[in-house]
Design brief:
A four-stranded antiparallel β-sheet has the order 1-2-3-4. The chain contains six helices and four strands; from the N terminus they run H-H-H-H-H-H-E-E-E-E.
Length: about 140
């Protein structure tokens, strides 16, 4: 039942979203997220921390503290069993938002929204929100 609701939520989000212009940003956003998750799966928090924005790095101060936060607060990102990228759209004037459907190792589905900021010719992750209810388009 949860899977059906998550799929319906994703369909609603896709139907009402404003897609990115075809300028390659969507692929760049997705690659940064994939690379950070690959680092999490290897417990390489030094590498994962490099994909975080300067603001996030200041908040956590070290890869170890960042890793602890991810393990405790975002276990579905630390060890996902499946990722499905949904729409990307403009966030604030200086950010992009990428929605990702993540299935954890128990089969539970989450809808996440990554805020991405451009720095030095690439995107960095400036935060992740777990979307619920109306935020998810349900």
């Amino acid at each position: 039942m949860r899977r059906i609701l998550a799929c319906l939520a994703a369909a609603a989000v896709l139907a009402t979203s404003t897609p990115l212009a075809a300028n390659g940003d969507g692929a760049a956003l997705q690659q940064v997220i994939r690379d950070q998750i690959a680092a999490f799966q290897e417990d390489d928090f030094d590498a994962a921390f490099k994909f975080a924005s300067p603001a996030i790095r200041r908040i956590f101060g070290s890869p170890e503290r960042f890793g602890q936060m991810v393990r405790q607060g975002y276990p579905m990102v630390h060890r996902p069993s499946e990722l499905r990228f949904l729409e990307a759209r403009q966030g604030s004037r200086s950010s992009m938002l990428q929605r990702v459907m993540v299935t954890d190792t128990t089969g539970r589905v989450y809808l996440l929204e990554y805020e991405m900021v451009a720095r030095g010719g690439t995107y960095l992750i400036n935060g992740v929100r777990i979307l619920r209810g109306a935020e998810a388009g349900v």
